Amino acid sequence: MQEALILAALLSALHVLSEWFDDHVHRLHSQIVSLNAGVFITFMFIVLLPQLAIGEFYLGENIYAFALVGFVLYHVGERYLYQHITHRKDLMRSLAHAHVAGFFADGIIIGMSVVLFFDVYSAFTARILFLPLVIHTVASTISSKHIHEHFRSGIAERALLSSAPLLGALFATFLGLYEHQFYFLFALIVGMLFYVVIRGVLPQDRKGKPLWFLVGAVMSLLLLRIEHIGF
């Protein structure tokens, strides 16, 4: 259990390092956004969806309904902001905060996953399963920075996002989260993440570099195959 907390703390530190890296490569902005989108999408299909299927053992087919609920709730919340906030600057700020909340919830689930891996699998397998979480943490950090580029996250928001994996691990460790509870929360957040990816992570219209998107997808797919994750 101590190793799980250490690895979760490393994910929190990686969040900060990913922001620092992204801040120092402005000239490669389009390439990094596209590369990251490819990595994120691959992780969603190769890791999260199979994990959702595993959750069917605990929650039955209801787990997919919970994922749908997460997607719908996020969409309804975003529509509410669009329809009830008329000032564009306030609207964009509110949307940015909503997406920060989504990525914070994602970080909580990532931290909880680390603990669950060490509870369910051997230590060796849990360490291998840690690799896609590293890829996902880097991808989600960069995504959260570029979804709303008009507003720079404050210190409090950055600290909250970076601490999410460790907080999730502590939550799962000390409150004794069981598989049923984990997969319920996991399904909700996967649904939310699918909405965030479709609306914000994928480059829209003429933006983005398709070649870099393809490189990100293929690179992460090969890396995950090497580690025997999802295959």
What brief labels describe this structure?
single chain, 231 residues, mainly alpha, 9 helices, 0% strand, globular
Could you describe the 3D structure shown?
The protein is an all-alpha fold. The protein has a domain at 32-105 and 123-161 and 183-226. It contains nine helices and no strands. α4 (62-84) runs antiparallel to α5. It starts with a helix and ends in a 5-residue tail after the last helix. The model has no long low-confidence stretch (mean pLDDT 77).
Short description:
The chain has 231 residues and is mostly helical.
Question: What's the N-to-C terminus distance?
Answer: 27 Å
Order of SSEs, N→C? HHHHHHHHH
Rounded radius of gyration (Å): 17 Å
Structural class: mainly alpha
Low-confidence stretches: none
**How many individual helices?**
9
Tell me the number of strands.
0
Strand content: under 5%
Mean pLDDT: 77
Sheet of most strands: none
Name the helicity range. over 70%
Assign an overall shape. globular
Secondary-structure blueprint of this entry?
Layout (H helix, E strand, L loop, with lengths): L1 H22 L5 H26 L1 H4 L2 H23 L3 H33 L2 H24 L8 H20 L4 H23 L8 H17 L5
Helix pairs in contact: 1-5, 1-6, 1-7, 2-6, 2-8, 2-9, 4-5, 4-8, 5-6, 5-7, 5-8
